[in-house]
Each structure stands twice: as C-alpha cells, then as structure tokens.
Amino acid sequence: MATKIRLQRHGRKGYAYYHIVVADSRAPRDGKFIERIGSYNPNTNPATVDINFDRALYWVEVGAQPTDTTRNLLSDKGVYMMKHLRGGVKKGAFSAEEAEKRFEKWSAEKESKIQAEKSKLAKGKEEKAKERLVAEQAVNKAKAEAVAKKKAEAAAAAAEAAAEAPAEEAPAAEEAPAAE
User: What is d(CA 121, CA 43) in angstroms, rounded to the nearest whole number?
Assistant: First the structure.
C-alpha cells in the first residue's frame, strides 16, 4: 500500500486549517486516513504547526511519501534532519549520542535565527509606529498653528470692526446735538 503524508482540509470557506495525516494514496483528500500526526493553521501569524515528531519520523523512515507542503513543514520541524542523522548512525559514521548532539545544535541555531527575526520584525514595527507618531504630531502642530492663525485673524478683524463702529457713531452723535 502506497502511503502519503498529506494535508486534510478542515474549517469554513475562506478560513481553512489542516490536519496532517498519513493516508493511503488512493483515499480521497478529506476521507479515510491511517493516522493523524499533526495540524497546520496558516491563518495565524506566524502559521501554527503542531507535529507529533516521533510518529512523523517513524512514517518517513517507513517510506511514506509527503506532499510538497507537508515535506516543507516536516523539514522545518527537523524530521528530515533527524532521518538524515539516523542514516549516519546506521552506516556507522557516528554514534547515536553524536547524532543527538548535532540535532540539538541544529535546533538551537534554528530557534535563535527565528528569535532574531522576530525581534527584528518587532523593532521595525516599533520604529514605524514612532515614525507615524512623529508625523502625526507634525500634522497636528500644523493644524494647531493654522487654527491659531485663523483665530488671530478673526480676533483682529473683530477688534478692527469694533474700533470702526464707535468711530462711526461718534460723528453721528456730534451732528445730532448741533442740529438742535
């Protein structure tokens, strides 16, 4: 029986998540499967991948063929690295302890790269937020200056109109007593 490690679609339209399953290659995509070995949710940022490492490694070593996407997911989690190291142990190139050390070193390096990338993205996000804040403050300052200028012009116009109004009333008041 030809077995495949593949994704089984679940979820609603436009919001899919997947189970990683081992199935007969002739079975339908969402149909009968042999074993569920993990899940994959591409909707989160970053995508969430949960794999039963031991079972995935077992099926890969037994000869189950993964699809392209599941191969990438398994490789990212280190299943293929461990398969490669176990092959070296079987050939006698190094011991099982050495293989475990190499895998731990690889895992640590990969985790540090991921953390560095996350911190870089977080710094970039913070810098963009600071830049937006500075730009927004500049725009608000310009608006405040424009409003202050407009108010000053309106106050000056009102003062000028008030100064002209009593000046016009005074000559009219002088003419009225002289007419009597």
Answer: 19
3-class SS letters over 59-116? HHHHCCEECHHHHHHHHHHCHHHHHHHHHHHHHCCCCHHHHHHHHHHHHHHHHHHHHH
- Using alpha carbons only, give the angle 27, 36, 40 rounded to the nearest 5 degrees: 100
Q: How confident is residue 161, by pLDDT bands cut at 50, 70 and 90? A: confident
Could you list the residue range(s) of the whole structural domain that residue 99 is in?
94-168
> Among the three residues 48, 79, 110, which one is the final residue of a domain in this structure?
79
Counting the structural domains of the chain, the total is 2
Tokens of 142: 């310009």
| Residue 88: inside a domain | no
pLDDT (tens digit, 9 = 90+) per residue, 27-38? 998 899 999 999
